[in-house]
């Protein structure tokens, strides 16, 4: 769900834009540790993957279907900093090339989905992985699912908090929070199932690509050798 | 670019809006929408005037309306929210036909609907008249951090390639009698998502190697810098100036409310 223009008042839009710019600036500096100088082409392709994965429809039954949000999935696959950048780019492209999500609400959308969604997912994942013990590769996929589950209602809660600050109508906040978190917990169940299964698939074929499983599987990095003629 | 390159909105054309340099359009779009969002919530008439202006901008692109209307479906969830809003919001009630609704909820719903429509229309006007290449050049010109622009450039470049791959995987699934109807189909779709990730990532590695072998140093060179005349800036910023003027008029004299 992308927040459109006019949903929040102008000060909230500007405020979240400042948060988004700060978050993305830090992510730009830190992401180089996750993907080194290959960042741009690889992160670009990961961003396309998120975009394409969001287009995959998951039937819920009775003719309705949902789709992946992908914040936690991206964080676990490529690391949280790169995931923040990729989600930011996906949201920017959706807003500017597809008119999906308001242009002045871009800061809000980045704050909610590229920062809160990614980092809550990553935080939960790291915490659980630490609790589970050091070398349990079999647990990575289920833990990724739990992280994805938590990240969705957490994003909804952040949205509710923003609404309390800059919303346009007086909706009773406890009712809004209950409705948003309740509904998004259901969505989170789907997100969890899909994230678990997708991470499991990648672990089965290319375990070295799963950032969240780094150090658990034997990785063979791509070597680039310079040849001086 | 256009249709073969992926599901972009861009339509080739030679209208006034098409000819404006992309960076002026982007700044004009942002300033206009911000101006409309900042209008006082009681200024319904001013907001409707901005809606008319947005319709004019879309008309000036000379893109067929059915193309525009098809894109407006992105607004649907918020139309639903706006319809529900007057019934769930609190505060003083007022009669609306046979039912009573919240006055502030009704006002917020109208504000949301008109503002979101103005912005979706203007954003569509930007998207249909700006090629992905020009968007990348505009962001470069506006000093967006280089690495972010590059990620975006690679994303829009491979958008069509990866969505086509995803489509081929869908055809492959369906030609094996797969039907996505219930939750039981999730493992299949999720493993497709996993495979799509591996394929995208490996494509990224190949693209990187290919670029390295062609002398890529981590920067994208600017070959044709964008230039805009004062007249083009004036034209691109006209809607924004109108929005700010309308806002000022409302604040000073109460016009439009």
Automatic annotation (TrEMBL), chain A:
GO terms for biological process: transition metal ion transport. This is Cobalt/nickel transport system permease protein. It is a multi-pass membrane protein. GO terms for cellular component: plasma membrane. The chain crosses the membrane at residues 6-28, 40-60, 72-98, 110-128, 140-165. InterPro entries: CbiM/NikMN. It comes from Knoellia remsis. Gene3D superfamilies: 1.10.1760.20. It is found in: Cell membrane. Keywords: Cell membrane, Membrane, Transmembrane, Transmembrane helix, Transport.
Automatic annotation (TrEMBL), chain B:
It is found in: Cell membrane. It holds the Pfam family CbiQ. It is a multi-pass membrane protein. The keyword Ribonucleoprotein does not apply. Keywords: Cell membrane, Membrane, Transmembrane, Transmembrane helix. The chain crosses the membrane at residues 45-65, 72-89, 109-128, 233-255. InterPro entries: ABC/ECF_trnsptr_transmembrane, ECF_CbiQ, ECF_transporter_component. One of its GO terms (biological process) is cobalt ion transport. GO terms for cellular component: ATP-binding cassette (ABC) transporter complex. It comes from the Bacteria. The keyword Aminoacyl-tRNA synthetase does not apply. This is Cobalt/nickel transport system permease protein.
């Amino acid at each position: 769900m992308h927040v459109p223009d006019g949903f929040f008042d102008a000060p909230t839009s500007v405020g979240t834009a400042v948060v988004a710019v700060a978050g993305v600036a830090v992510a730009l500096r830190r992401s180089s540790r996750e993907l080194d100088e290959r960042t741009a082409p690889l992160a670009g392709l990961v961003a396309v993957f998120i975009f394409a994965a969001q287009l995959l429809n998951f039937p819920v039954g009775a003719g309705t279907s949902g789709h992946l949000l992908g914040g936690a999935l991206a964080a676990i696959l490529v690391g949280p900093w790169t995931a923040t950048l990729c989600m930011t780019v996906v949201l920017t492209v959706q807003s500017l090339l597809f008119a999906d999500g308001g242009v002045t609400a871009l800061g809000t959308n980045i704050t909610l989905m590229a920062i809160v969604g990614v980092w809550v997912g990553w935080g939960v994942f790291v915490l659980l992985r630490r609790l589970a013990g050091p070398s349990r590769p079999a647990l990575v996929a289920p833990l990724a699912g739990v992280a994805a589950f938590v990240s969705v209602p957490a994003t909804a809660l952040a949205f509710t908090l923003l609404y309390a600050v800059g919303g346009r109508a007086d909706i009773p906040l406890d009712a809004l929070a209950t409705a948003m978190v309740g509904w998004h917990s259901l969505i989170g169940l789907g997100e969890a199932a899909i994230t678990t299964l997708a991470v499991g698939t990648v672990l089965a074929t290319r375990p070295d690509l799963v950032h969240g499983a780094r150090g658990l599987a034997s990785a063979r990095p791509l070597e680039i050798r310079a040849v001086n003629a | 670019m256009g249709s073969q390159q992926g599901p972009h909105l861009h339509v080739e054309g030679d209208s006034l809006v098409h000819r404006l340099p992309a960076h002026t359009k982007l700044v004009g779009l942002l300033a206009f929408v911000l101006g409309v969002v900042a209008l006082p919530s009681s200024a319904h008439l001013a907001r409707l005037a901005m809606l008319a202006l947005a319709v004019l901008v879309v008309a000036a692109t000379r893109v067929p309306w059915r193309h525009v209307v098809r894109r407006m479906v992105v607004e649907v969830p918020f139309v639903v929210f706006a319809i529900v809003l007057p019934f769930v919001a609190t505060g003083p009630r007022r009669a609306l036909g046979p039912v009573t609704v919240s006055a502030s909820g009704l006002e917020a719903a109208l504000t949301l609907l008109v503002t979101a429509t103005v912005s979706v229309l203007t954003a569509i006007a930007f998207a249909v008249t700006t090629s992905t290449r020009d968007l990348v050049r505009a962001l470069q010109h506006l000093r967006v951090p280089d690495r972010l622009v590059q990620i975006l450039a690679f994303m829009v470049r491979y958008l069509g390639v990866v969505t086509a791959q995803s489509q081929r995987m869908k055809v492959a699934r369906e030609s094996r009698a797969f039907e996505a109807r219930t939750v039981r189909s999730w493992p299949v779709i999720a493993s497709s998502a996993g495979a799509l990730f591996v394929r995208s990532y490996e494509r990224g590695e190949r693209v990187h190697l290919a670029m390295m072998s062609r002398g890529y140093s981590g920067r994208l060179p600017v070959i044709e810098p964008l230039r805009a005349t004062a007249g083009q800036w004036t034209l691109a910023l006209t809607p924004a100036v109108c929005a700010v003027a309308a806002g000022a008029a409302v604040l000073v004299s109460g016009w439009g409310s």
